[in-house]
Amino acid sequence: MLLKGLILAGGYATRLRPLSCTKPKLLFPLVGTPLIERMIEWLGRGNVKEVILAVNHLSDKLRMEVGSKKSGSGVFLSVEETPLGTGGPLRLADKLLAGENPVVVVNGDVAADIDLESLTRTHEMSGADASMTVFSVRDTRPFGLVTLDSDDRIVGFEEKSPLNRGPGWINAGVYILNQNVIEMIPKGRAVSLEREIFPVLAKRGKLKGWKHSGFWYDIGKVQDYVTANMELLARPGYLPGRSGGLAPISSIEQPIYLGDGCLVGKDSKIGPRAILSAGVKVKRGAKIHDSIVFEESVLGENSLVEGSVIGEATTIGKNAVVGSGSIIAGEVTVPDGMTLKPGSIVLN
Ligand code: GTP
């Protein structure tokens, strides 16, 4: 069965600032590949051949990406004039989703290897109006906590409870919704699926949980984004084996990732745990480890970058030092010789 999918991609990603000031969350590179590319490929494997991106914030950048050949075919944009929350975009796109039953809905900050075919099959057989992928975590507080009965029906749903109840099942942000659920969403205003729709379905016994046990990351916070990258970097067999141009005299300590067209100068030291997106230039004598660099940035001669994230098209000057835990926004220049203390945040 071919399906249509909708990716919720219109949030402001405030917890990823300042990196998200110039780049929508869906274009954040996950080990060098934009999240949207990974998502569309994953949705395609699950028979989702048409994808609607529900956007408003930084939609021009997403539009350009969708227009480019990599993620383009079968992808449509639905642009909100004002943010419609996690439910309103489904109502807004109901013409694009017309006649589809069921529809796959995905939060635009999830990186996972959920088996969509199996999820859809289980949903079809369950008689539920909606199925929610659930994932087991040690601390449920930052997430939507779900309570399941012995048939995996969701009988309780509590969004971001401040109480620490220890390990439990949480909403993993990937849903299968029948058309009647989309019809439940009020028109023309912001609606939260999590607060307004799922609790009602749970009460009616029409919300099924589907337990996912592979990998799952919510990349909505900088720390979680870094963890997802580093764990995926270390995961054998997960990465496409790409490499850029590496100077023979530079020193490498694995694991590292070099995107297409990276240039690495003489006497530089890359790694361990350095992820450089496409087109990054590491000049002579520069050192980088435990860090992520977005595309087209430049690390100047003899600069040092430790445990940090550097946005796209940023230049780190000659002899500059970026201390551990720093976040440098995209399109920034750190002057030659400057030392940024650990934990520095540099805005655009
Ligand atoms: P924070 O500001 O850091 O909370 O991030 P966020 O609002 O981008 O993400 P949140 O985790 O709150 O939302 C979950 C998903 O829903 C994300 O993929 C968001 O992009 C998306 N989302 C949130 N609000 C909207 C909205 O008003 N419209 C659309 N289309 N998507 C939304």
Question: What proportion strand?
Answer: 25-35%
CATH topology title of the largest domain = Spore Coat Polysaccharide Biosynthesis Protein SpsA, Chain A
For the record, the CATH architecture of the largest domain stands as: Alpha-Beta Complex
Label the structural class: alpha/beta
Q: How far is it from the N-terminal to the C-terminal residue, by CA?
A: 46 Å
How many individual helices?
7
How would you summarize this macromolecular structure in one to three sentences?
The protein has helices spanning 35-45, 59-67, 88-92, 116-126, 179-184, 193-204, 222-234, and strands spanning 3-8, 29-30, 33-34, 48-55, 75-79, 103-107, 110-112, 130-137, 144-148, 154-159, 168-177, 207-212, 216-218, 245-246, 251-252, 256-258, 263-264, 269-270, 274-276, 281-282, 287-289, 291-293, 298-299, 304-306, 309-310, 315-316, 321-322, 327-328, 333-334, 339-340, 345-346. The chain is α/β, with parallel strands linked by helices and 348 residues long. The protein folds into two domains: 3-233, Spore Coat Polysaccharide Biosynthesis Protein SpsA, Chain A (Alpha-Beta Complex), CATH 3.90.550.10; 245-346, Hexapeptide repeat proteins (UDP N-Acetylglucosamine Acyltransferase, domain 1, 3 Solenoid), CATH 2.160.10.
Question: Can you describe what's shown?
Answer:
By secondary structure, the protein is of the alpha/beta class. It has two domains: 3-233, Spore Coat Polysaccharide Biosynthesis Protein SpsA, Chain A, CATH 3.90.550.10; 245-346, Hexapeptide repeat proteins (UDP N-Acetylglucosamine Acyltransferase, domain 1, 3 Solenoid), CATH 2.160.10. Helix content is 19%, strand content 32%. The chain has helices at residues 35-45, 59-67, 88-92, 116-126, 179-184, 193-204, 222-234; strands at residues 3-8, 29-30, 33-34, 48-55, 75-79, 103-107, 110-112, 130-137, 144-148, 154-159, 168-177, 207-212, 216-218, 245-246, 251-252, 256-258, 263-264, 269-270, 274-276, 281-282, 287-289, 291-293, 298-299, 304-306, 309-310, 315-316, 321-322, 327-328, 333-334, 339-340, 345-346. Strands 1, 4, 5, 6, 8, 9, 10, 11 and 12 form a nine-stranded mixed beta sheet that branches. Strands 14-17-20-23-26-29 form a six-stranded parallel beta sheet, with no helix packed on it. The protein has a six-stranded parallel beta sheet with strand order 15-18-21-24-27-30, with no helix packed on it. The longest helix has 13 residues, at 222-234. Mean pLDDT is 90; it is low at 238-242.
